[in-house]
Amino acid sequence: MSEKVATGIPGLDEIFQGGVLRGSSVLVEGPPGSGKTTLGLQFVVHGILQFGEGGIVITFEQFPDQLYRDALSFGWDLKRLEEDGKLRVVCTSPPVLERMLRSTDGMLEKMRDEIGARRIVVDSITHLHRITDNLILLRELVHTLVNGLKLLGFTALLTKEVTTHEPTAIDFEEYVVDTVIRLNYVSLPGTAGARRWLEVRKARGQSYIDGRHPYRITESGLHVFPCPRPKRRELTTRRLKKAVERVSSGVAGLDEILMGGYVRNTTTLIAGPSGAGKTMLSLHFLLSGAQMRERGFLLTFQESPWRVIQTMSAIDHNAHKYIRQGLLRIEHLLPTSLSPEEVIFNLVKWCEELRIKRLVIDSISDLLSLAENEDVAHDLAYSLVKLMEERAVTTLMTYELKQVTGITSISEIGFSFIADTVIYIGFTEVESEVAKVISVLKLRGGIHQTDLRRLIVTEKGLKVGTKFTGLTGVLMGAPMGHYRETVDELLQPLTFVSDFIDMLAEGKFDEDAKRELLSNMKEQVLKVMRALCEKYEVDYEELLEGA
What we know:
Number of domains: 3
Strand order of the largest sheet: 5-4-6-7-3-8-9-10-11
Shape: rod-shaped
CATH superfamily of the largest domain: P-loop containing nucleotide triphosphate hydrolases
Radius of gyration: 35 Å
Oligomer: single chain
Helix content: 25-40%
CATH topology of the largest domain: Rossmann fold
Distance between the termini: 101 Å
Number of helices: 19
CATH architecture of the largest domain: 3-Layer(aba) Sandwich
Largest sheet: 9 strands, mixed
């Protein structure tokens, strides 16, 4: 098996599943400002510091002092490494390098032996065009460079400039080298800045993770965030025999609709307009887990941590204690500050390191708002669900609907296709009042109640109320009919009055009993009058005075 060389660049070795092959030639290409030189220096410096492999940097356009200064901004003291006999920085020209490669005195070989160099960076081979414009001669020159460095036992990293952000043509250099890494960045609208990504175009003799991987240029160099890739899972009899386990939602009445609670290790999408109660519903879920010593994690993009904690404390006064004990973790991010891939990468790491069992993402709309396009957003959403499922994490994701009242179909809810359970929370008008409604629209592989119920906000959070009996069209926000609660409010006292009349007709009461009966009858009549006045906006006191 071929030996691999770890680059020492966070995330890049994971993409190459351990590093690049020893003795290979790696082409790093990209537009100005994409970080090509930085990646090259990081490759050499980490080879020295982490793996004890001396390095050589050959540059065609930067003087050593300029290179020293730029490297110091990342914490790399190149001058010190040179003084320690671990690094050589060579500022030269393409013709001189050509003569060095073709000469018999072995200048590069001597340099290699003096410092024990095994890594070399050439920045950049674009300058070889200064020797000739003939493509045949250029290709021969690049061949000579690549093969010469390979014969000397170097693992070589060559940088190359590209003139566009979306290069489509494949230049001959890509055919000559063993591995091609393309760096790029695109400007985003608004204040989001630029999005950087890295793509491995080819890697001879080794496997790698394909796709576009976001990266950042940090104070310590490049940091790559490999694209999330769920593992392929085989169906086993053990999985088939495993019983479905439910976890409590923490909301009074909701577990009843869900026939026991959310299904463990699945994803639930809570969809609804702003202010409907999506975040509060998800906080109940986390607090319920904390009460049972299950670690929970909240990723929020809109709500600040102090406001979240304030809401949590209203639901459960032990919220601060759970946070101190590490049972609850709150992470607040700005949607424009990170790429969706980077957030998912960090989420997976957090869930593994903190042993998270319950995860809330508030909201999936914010997380994927900066995805390149709708197809990428759907792929990322699918990967996120599967990655959490692999780690036995029960996940709740909120999704904001634009319309204030009503939906006509589940297809109106974005990302509903990737969720195992879909819960709708919305508003509806009931007898000139705005009421909150909750309903389970989907529960994959399980049964649930299909009722439309009131969602009631109390001082202690949320609870699920009664059905909207007697009304139709509640889900669409335009109910028709008479709300059963209102009808019962009128019918019950009238039934009492009817019973009282029957009792009086029998004539078996003395005067005291008759007075008590008439008093009760009047009380029930007044109760009906109050209900009717409230319904039709009539002043009850004024009505009594007029009578």
